[in-house]
Each structure stands twice: as C-alpha cells, then as structure tokens.
Design a protein that fits this description.
The structure is a single chain. With about 500 residues, the protein is an alpha/beta fold. It folds into 3 domains: about 240 residues, Rossmann fold (3-Layer(aba) Sandwich), CATH 3.40.50.300; about 190 residues, 2-Layer Sandwich (Nucleotidyltransferase, domain 5); about 30 residues, no CATH class. It has 18 helices and 17 strands. It has an 8-stranded mixed beta sheet with strand order 3-4-5-2-6-7-1-8, sandwiched between helices. Strands 9-17-12-11-10-13-14 form a 7-stranded mixed beta sheet, sandwiched between helices. A two-stranded antiparallel sheet has the order 15-16. Strand 3 and strand 4 form a beta hairpin. Helix 11 crosses helix 12. The chain is globular, with a radius of gyration of 31 Å. The chain starts with 9 loop residues before the first helix and ends with a helix. The N terminus is likely disordered.
Length: about 500
Amino acid sequence: MPKKRAAKTGDERKDLVIDWGTVSEPQAKFLASTTMYTCYGGARGGGKTHVARLKAVGMAFKYPGIRILMVRAHYPELTANLIEPIQQWLPAEIYNYNNTDHKMTILTSLIYPDCELDSVIKFGHYDSKAAENEYQGVQYDVIFLEEATQLSERAFQFIGSCCRGANDFPKRIYLTCNPGGVGHKWVKDLFVDKKYRIDPNNPERNQNPKDYTFIPATVDDNPWLLEKSPMYLQQLANLPDDLRAAHRYGDWNALSGAYFSNFHRNSHTMPRFKIPYSWPLYRSFDYGLDMLAVLWWAVDEDGRCWAYREVEEKGLVIQHAAQMVAENTLSYEHITATYAPPDMWNRQKDTGKTMADTFLQNGVAIVKADNNRVQGHMIMRDMMTPMPLNDPYVKSLFPEGKAPETLPGLMFFDDLESVIEDIESIQADEKNPNDCAKDPHDVTHTVDACRYFAINRSRKADKKQKKKKISPFAFLEADSEDGDDYETYLCGGEITEDYMN
C-alpha cells in the first residue's frame, strides 16, 4: 500500500511549483483521452515520451494513492528517457526514488492538506518472457507502454493483464510508438487498421472498437524541438526511403516490421485441406525448457512445402517433450525425417545420455539439423518466393479455372497462428541484417523450427568421391598401382591377425 503521510501546512506547500510547460494539439488530445487504450505517435519527434511523462505525473497528483506502471523494453532507456528527466523536472522535495526497486513515490500529501496516501510510479522492463516474473500477481491502475512497437503482442497482453484493481481509480493503458519493431503488426492492426477480434464462441475475447484511440503526431507538431534542433528535419530527410516515410511522416505501410518482408498471409496461407497419402511427411522442432515448438510438414509433387500442424508447449522436460511430439503424430502418418537442433546431441550430466537418445527411446528418431542461422533464414526467405504450380491436387483446391500459375514454395495452413504470427513479427538483427534478431526470444522458437526444416530440405548432397580408374589388365602387371603384388591384388594377401580380429 502507498505510504501514509501527515498533511502539510499551507506555508510548507506554497513554494512547491511544477512547470507543466506548453503542449501541442495532439499532445493535448492524448492528455484528455479517457479510453481504455490510447496510442500516441507514428513519427519521430512528435513529443511522445514528454507527453507520457506529463500524463503519468499528472495522474499521480490528480489521484492520490494511484499506482502507475511505466514500461520499456530495456532498463537503460527507462533511466535515460523517463526516470532521469522526471527527476530533473520535479522539485526534489516532492518525490522519493528507490533506485533498487525502480519506484518513485510522489508525495501527494505535500499538495493536498487532507491527503494521507502517496501515489506510486513503478518503472519496469520487458526484454523477454523471463521479465514476466516481475509482473506476476501485481496490479496497477494505469499502465504506460513506452515505444510499444519494441514489445511483442504477448508482452502487451501479459502486462495489460496487470491493469486492474478494486478501487475507484481509472483503469487505462497508454502507448507511445513509432512504426517498425517486433510489435509493428499488432499495434498497426489495433490502432491504425482497426482490425478487432470478434470471437462468437468466446465473447470475452472480443475487442471493442470504442476502447481504442489513436492520436497521430509528427515532428511538425513539435515546434519546440525544431527551434532547438533545426537540423533534425534534414536528419530525417536523409534516412533511407522506407525509414523516412515511416519516421518522418508516420507511414505505417512503409515498414513491414518483419525480417521476412516477402511473407504475406493472403499469399502464403491457405485453409486446411486433406493431405494426400502420397506426399512425404516431415517434422522439425526447436526445444528448450522455456518452449517446445514443433511443426509438421508435407511436400507436394512440385516440391512445395506445407506446414500443416503446430504444437507449442513450455516447461517440458526432455522426456515429456519427446512424448508430446509422438502423441501429436497420427498413427497412419509415416514421418520421413524429424529435424532437430544440434544441441540435442549434447550429453546430460545426470544420465550421460543425449537428449536425442531420450527422443529415440520414446519413439521419435531425429536427424541433426544444420544450425547455420544466416543461411537457414535466407533459405526460408527464398522458399517463400513463388514457384510454378503444376501439382494437379493443389490446383483442384481452387475453383475451376481459378488456380494461380504460381504459388510460394513455403506454405502454411491458415490456422497455424503461432508460426504465422512469429514469422510476421520477427525482426532483422541490428548487427547482421542477413540474420533474424534473437530478441524477443519468445517469437524465435517456431521460426527456428521452420529454419531447421528449410535448410535441410535444400542442403546439397555430399560430394561424391572420385572413383579411381583401374586397368582391367592390372592383375597381369607385376605390381598394381598401389604397389601391391599379384597375390595381394586379387586375393587380399596373407591372412593377418588384424583380419582375424
């Protein structure tokens, strides 16, 4: 509970002055918004972080005792963009800050003569699923997601579940962001394209359009920044075309937000259909205690690969993971090969066995996959390009005369939501744009499972050994080309101890 404090006298309160400054029209709309979800931004320089600080501190003073959470992907950005600026802005007498807990207590008892409760602003991060422990079981009245597109949809949903409480304080979630990043798609769907989930089988999951407000802003709405940094417009103008469109003008269509920019649901997915018995079947998986991700594949007569089943389960020990793979494979499915990460062949300290041994004991024989990340991801991207469609069965899935001439070489049944969303979300690595980013880790598992399959499907055969030419008349020669005599060449020579053993 917030700490109780005694009320101060008027003389003690009168010298505490807070300069709230001047805000732009979009910032004023953000400050006035009372919808459940309010998203601000779209371009760089629109004053997103500044208005988020104003709103958080303003609500802390307006509602004594309120609990507020401000989240970014990493703690260093929290310190540089939120914590330190707020500390420099507010009079030191009006707050306490605990550097260990990253918690700021706003001493509202210094403002209100009858106030007994102080407000709290907690600063948190979410750089992977492991960060969820920080928010397990806690609750906040208002949550701010700074640079929301740097957070996965899972992070948005999990942190958002902390917005609750049996009190009279408002319950809201505020977001600020630019286009791009791992969260590009879900932010764009909700706030820009306004795609809301309607589930007739589970109305509790439905999204109400009235709960979402998007307030766009660009650097043109921030004359104070342009006055202090007149070169900023030129810096934005010199960005590459796609980044300039997104960060200068807030164009959400300029950036795909994904490493696999050539992947599109409308072309790379199809409704579920019956797999012909003649198509060879495969499996591929990625395994760790944090997640088992398995994909089942079928290959049509054109060589096109179809992902037709997926399983994701976290917290499985190796034996249960193997059983999960076996149990989700139908009895009549003959699996040609199951591709697995190379670390499955590492020996476990407690048993001395490899994880591959455990899989085999549970009826799942696995093949060691190539672990070349860059090559594997680039092969995936290449497989996503269109190839001629000749398979008569696949053609028959389309209305008569409507079958396309080409279809991508990597296809997915449209109900495989996990792998489809992860492929859409995963980013290019900042240090190596030819590779996928490893963070956030929760979107990499299904992509890695897909990569193991793709790279082994396209792996070249081992180079054949050049056969040695032997003369058909070699036995007539006194010595063979290897220096063997006639007896050794034809009969193998004398029986030796090595031969007998």
